[in-house]
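Render this sequence as a predicted structure.
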Amino acid sequence: MKKSILFCTLLTLLGIVQLKAQNIPVSGKFSYTESLGKTAGGTGIFYTHTIHLKNTQSALYSVDGYQASSRLACKVIKLKANRVQLVFDHFGEHDMFKNGDIYKKGQKLMTLENKNGQWLVQFAKDFPMDQQGKTIVFKQIK
């Protein structure tokens, strides 16, 4: 009987640890690099997308690469324990474009979800870059 109770207790604790491990962290960095081929002159076209969760309420989404440097300050909205949504708040420092026609305050940009240890980013269908509606796996880098 004691072994049975101990076994059930261990299974329960293991389940709790597993669920906790799938939660979105309070802070962290997630990254994805894409290659879009080469220019006519042979220069590689690469972009690195980074999501920096600063705390439970704010994040910075950045894109750096070939002729690009974008910084979008976002509000973080918790949807589930393992899923948050990033909503555009304002342009960050050093943003090359700062185009108010493209991004509107409160615009939903993407969701970040921990699904079985994979960090999935689902871009909004009206996201103003090529990632519209796509789901991409990001790596946690910090």
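Summary. The first strand starts at residue 28 and ends at 38. The helical segments are 2-21.
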